[in-house]
Amino acid sequence: MEERFRKKFPDLRILRIDSESVSDPSHPAFGCIVHLNEILTKYDLVIASPSLETGVSIDIKGHFNAVWGIFQGVQSANSVRQMLARLRETVDRHIWVRGSGMGWVEDGYRVIDAEDIKEEESQGVFESVKAASQELYGEECKAIRLWR
Questions:
Q1: End-to-end Cα separation, the chain, in angstroms
Q2: Against a cut of 0.70, is the pTM above it?
């Protein structure tokens, strides 16, 4: 993803934060978590993996105008909410979630296909996640948009 953005937008200052980049002394993301608010203002686009999911608060105001989330089906709803709320400022949140994902059961994993879920079940889950999100992140949720 980083490479695609660099080719399409060569003038953008891009930072990738993932388990590989934060542990590589030669990468600009090395050790960035400690000074995240200072470092992020130097970049136009930040691509972050779930390594930025918990325990991180981005309190920058007026620098970023949106949060985009691409979720492949391996993170829980709570993890997704946490990741989307790292940036505390109220900005638009754009979310894409894969149509099927992995669900944990006692004896291993099973695939959950979105087409096998009834509309009312899907809407119920969405409403539940939305209500919990609003309770936990009231201000941030004013900007969440659901894209179908």
A1: 22
A2: no
